[in-house]
## 1
Amino acid sequence: MTRTIDPNTTMAELLSEYPGAQRALFRNYHIGGCASCGFSPNETLASVCARNDDLPVEDVIATILAGHEADQKMGISPVQVAERLNAGESVRLIDVRSREEWDSVHIDGSTFFTEELMRAMMSDWPKEAEVVFVCHHGVRSLDAAAFFAGHGFQNVRSMNGGIDAWSLEVDPELLRYHLE
Amino acid sequence: MSPVNDFGDRIAEAIKHPKNLGEMAGADAVGTVGSEDCGDMLRMWVKFKEVDGKRVIDKATFQTFGCGTAIAVASVATELISGKTVEEALTMSSEDLSAPLGALPPLKIHCAQLVEEALRSALAPGGEPKAEKNVAPTLLQRMQSPAREKKKIILGPSNE
């Protein structure tokens, strides 16, 4: 059976059923990225489409349904990241975890994400820069990659499994941790 | 539809070299829209001066951590309102405030509206408040949220 989404579903219901929908919406239509393009959880998908240049709802639904595949394409394994770094490729590894997590453990050569860095990326970095975002388990880094993809960055990736997977698959000496 | 990364040169230039960016010490008025807690907001500072017995805007600055187009619009808007009275500035629509950038792509018009709201918040703080917008967590908030969460870091894997 072909999956579909009711245009009258609320955005809260949509995000509950399709967690990647917000990434898909921002990557493709610049919706839901920041305060200026945000949406209300009570709005319906149809109304969000209507007030955004009357986007065809069916096209948007197809984009959301394809979002999971698009998310997967943005992923890169820790082993692949390590291979590229070891080969001297100009991949920039950006860590979007909290300062406390960064201070506890981080990957050598990675950069801590700050608002100043974000502004520099938006204004100075070439849109074709190769960037890999990393977080604890690879979820927030996927949001970060989608946010920058939505701003025109063409080669942004998210490290699958985050720094935890890096500890397991690349560098066992890098301490794992959990949050309580 | 055209891809969202097809920014006009004027918008890209304004984003690259924003005017009046940053907090203003000694401002006479401040307006904020968006959520201050998560940094996903736009804030505007305004300073006045007297010219020929009229109180006019001497300078306006802004700070935002949101969308690049909001930066571009705020940059040109802060230049446009310089020298205007409060009444004159309040007559300006989001289209007026973003006019130097040319027509914004339809999906970016809300960025100009955000700037207009911040300006109104600064210039007419006693005015009729707009209804609080109920906005779902944005991608920017989601990726920045760990910085606001105070959780204890326990070295070693979880027992779950």
## 2
Amino acid sequence: MVQPAEQVYTGRTESRLTGAYLVIALLALFVGVVTGLFQALSHAGVNLYPQLTPVVASYYQGLTVHGVMNALVWTTFFICGFLQFVATRAFGLPLASRTLAWMTYGLMTGGLVLAAIPLLGNAATVMFTFYPPLQAHWAFYVGLTLVVVGTWLVTLNLVLTYRTWRAQHPGERTPLAAFMTLITFAMWSIASLGLAAEMLLMLIPWSLGWQRGTDPLLARTLFWFTGHPIVYFWLLPTYISWYTLVPRQAGGKLFSDPMARGSFILFLLLSTPVGMHHQFTDPGIGQGWKLTHAFLTFAVFFPSLLTFFNVVASLESGARTRGGRGLLVWFAKLPWSDPSLTAQVLAMLLFAFGGIGGLVNASYSLNLVVHNTAYIVGHFHLTVGTAVTLSFMGITYWLVPVLRGRGLWSPRLALVQSWLWFIGMGLFSFALHDLGILGMPRRTMMSAAPYIQPEWQALRPLVGIGGSILFVSALLYFLNMLLTCVASHAPAPETPAFAEVLSGPEEGPAILDCWRPWLVFTVILLILAYGHPLVHLVSNTPLNVPGMRVW
Amino acid sequence: MNKHATLYLYELAWMLPSVALPVGMLAALAVTAFGAHIGLPGEAGRVDPAAVMQTAPFNQPGVVEIAPGRYEAHLVAGIWFFNPPEIRVPEGSEVTFVATSKDVIHGFLVRAANINAMLLPGQITRVTARFDRAGTYPFLCHEYCGIAHHTMSGKVIVEPRS
């Protein structure tokens, strides 16, 4: 029996599962946003931390909570919910095992609670990067590891679902959103091995007292093995919405399915063998390896350039069906009254600057200007903080109503929220980029620093103002979400259908729907980029650095 | 021209500059890194973190002249200080900083001299810079290292040639 590849599957279990993940994700985002406000004010010279004790013990505890909740929890839980929803609808099939799906959710939530206890209790004020010799309570490391293990189980469930689909559809191209979901989780499962090794072989035994010492350089190298591809774990689900849903929301079609598939395959190959660009200023790693990773980082920029072209061309196809004319002015004819579309298009606009900033960071010697400065903070608020977060918010503007069975409480408020985020983030991030070039450090309580440079003074208030606008935008977002769930009487929308394509999957070569060659290439590239450095580090590293709790 | 050929040509017209741009930027980088000798910290040896204060050169933090106009600054970072917090050299000097941490990971940023390096316990960091202009070059720790991280700073004072 052949089923149409895009039949609309309305599985209730998957809807409940997605809703369960979103509840945790949104709670995490709320906590992350509240802590963020006080950091932005500190940059502007306003120190409210004495008023926040004992709930928040210090700027640094608040910052750790902010990083963990925003960069690790909001993202991971949203992605597991959203992609399981999208993939099952693309396949037209339920998840292979509902039991596994709910057990995984329990494992991930349990891990989060375990990590949150020391985190909120100021026993894990080590930033979301937790570099040793800073040593947190063991429950922090164990809890986060359980969350990562959960993502591997999500991968397993999706792979089993794909096998069922493939058995029913031999020779057909995998539906695009499902293919992209599988790539995302395959890439992440490989990438997370670095973090898993760091946790299981170093940080957990060390924090439990089974190992006396550890090594900071080996730990950092394993962390950043995962730490760069994690940003693609965040970005690829964003791209899935931009490629498979936004074109239809814009009134048009996806320009090229084969190019989209190709770009995701390139992300599978190139997301992980680049992590040393986060270690350009580290001692103990040779310049040759750093240059190799710089080269590969420029290579991974290529699929984002392909995405830029394909997504903009798709938006253009929508704007032109709505009467858009001219070389650039068609942009105004996009359906700007749709908050889900507006949020995601605004996210794309700011992301362009985030991408350019990323190129600066990756530019080997230019990294000497920006490493560990406020420039980096400006950069990642444009990328994970806007491209990913504002797009995810835009997705929730249809997803939460669909899951809840009630229409969005106020589309107008959602539009205001999106524009406020765009304006606030533009101001916030512009000021931080500039401050970074002028040498202001990141991860530092600026309201208490004795070395403020005169050239920073004009820009610091802008960080506070931008951050405050972002906070207001977030409050409006949560208000809208809450009222949608409990008070809206508007009719629930239909689940958006996947976009049609101008250049379809059959136009691309069959190798774009294969797995084995690409997985093999991925492993080969990883061995080339990390094999020798890791073997060298592991075989020459005494684990002799003791842990310290310095907060 | 049929629709598929047109779409394919648009794709190609985008892909070619998308490859050329990163390749060009990378070539520019290679020229600056190797032609202009702007290097990143590399492998410079290890030190036993438990015995840093007894191990040369960290047992004598400070500045030594190793040749006319060339200096080595032996620097130890710890919670929450740089030792020495003040480094004095004459205008026109080339200074190699030989540094490490005695406890957690610290950073070393001398913005006005383009020095940016991580200081890891167990690792030796070597970075070299020229100080051609007299003046004060503040430096600070830019890696979170605990509750008083924001107080960690120092300065290089470059004295004018009299």
## 3
Amino acid sequence: MKNTGTLQVSLPNDREILMTRVFDAPRDLVFDAFTRPELLKRWFGPRGWTLDVCEVDYQVGGGFRFVLRGPNGAQIGMRGVYREIVLPERSVHMESFDDYPGESQVTGIFKENDGKSTLTITVSYPSKEVRDVVLKSGMEHGAAETYDRLAEMLAERGKTAEVA
Amino acid sequence: MKLQGYEHATPDRLDTTFAALADPTRRAILARLASGEASVAELAKPFSMTQPAISKHLRVLERAGLISRGRDAQRRPRKLEAKPLGEANQWLERYREFWEENFKRLDALLDELKAAGKKRRPR
């Protein structure tokens, strides 16, 4: 696939994580794939898991409910509310997981150029405290943030230490 | 969403690592140790901190397994331990891989949708 490996993960600040990915398709298709249940069910979730429950009331103030089922009866539930919708450019929702504390805001921005789409997803936590709770529970978002800092630090190998 | 492969580093270990890395001074100490081992006095100098203050940070890093003590009994130099840091980097890479795997499936779906042409788009 042409765009395989174009996914970039970075950290704009203390509370956020940013992902960018190019898709070889017009943005209305990409937008649909992120917002329509019958399409979401075909790609969303870890390998070996199925998106068994996928209810989407795609309107501002409307909610969604996902239940992913995996091997050995494992289950992940998540839910959220849509905050902002600009077809097919921008979609903002709040998101939380059944088994973990903390709520994050997820902003998706879809841009199209020459028939290709660039998707930018920003996950924001309301505060450092919430982020830390999520982080402590082992959720990947917070973990990635801390670990990205670590990666930056390691990239500075050999430099004289400074007090940040 | 939970990441697969999370078991490579135990949650407890990750908690301790996160907590140790949450402080800018401790990250700077690790960056300094990345270029070679150093005694407490040597570490305290560039930070304009007292040795007890530095020692406190070093204890946190030591508990997290991020640093250890070198052989020299007099200087008791601290050195970087690679393993937890390696696990930490793996974590970020796994996050990226997790999403990339999802997005590859999405690539295939988008190809199919394109081929099917612009059919229904209710909403």
